[in-house]
Amino acid sequence: MTTQNESVGVRYLVDDVRSAIEFYTGRLGFTLHTNAGPAFADVTRGSLRLLLSGPASSGARATPAESADPGRNRIHLVVDDLDDEIGRLRDADVPFRSEVVSGPGGRQILITDPAGNLVELFQPASAA
């Protein structure tokens, strides 16, 4: 089991590891941890370790085809200013999958990585 002091790992299946690294480090502030060529890389942000598994990785090969579609789950990244992030990412031609949704807990919007995996950007109500 992961303890509170350890990072949490999430695996995303990606078509192109290099473009996924560029997206997460260049657009969302992750740090490259491991780059194992075209098969696998991992990037970190805070306590999140995102495992980027290309088609040749063991993680991708272990996933049944019917479960491999992107977009069934998403990572959730807290941001200080959602409007600033939206503007910055639109200027970088990052694809958006939703409009801003507001609720009692805050505001959020969905973007996609180069493989179509969802990323939720969330600004808590206390920061709004």
TrEMBL record:
PROSITE patterns recorded: VOC
Domain VOC: 6-124
Entry annotated with the keyword Lyase: yes
Keywords for this protein: Lyase
SUPFAM superfamilies linked: Glyoxalase/Bleomycin resistance protein/Dihydroxybiphenyl dioxygenase
UniProt xrefs under Pfam families: Glyoxalase
UniProt keyword Lyase present: yes
InterPro entries per the UniProt record, alphabetical: Glyas_Bleomycin-R_OHBP_Dase, Glyas_Fos-R_dOase_dom, VOC_core
GO molecular function: lyase activity
Region (Disordered): 54-74
Name of the protein in question: Predicted enzyme related to lactoylglutathione lyase
Organism: Rhodococcus coprophilus
Classification lineage: Bacteria, Bacillati, Actinomycetota, Actinomycetes, Mycobacteriales
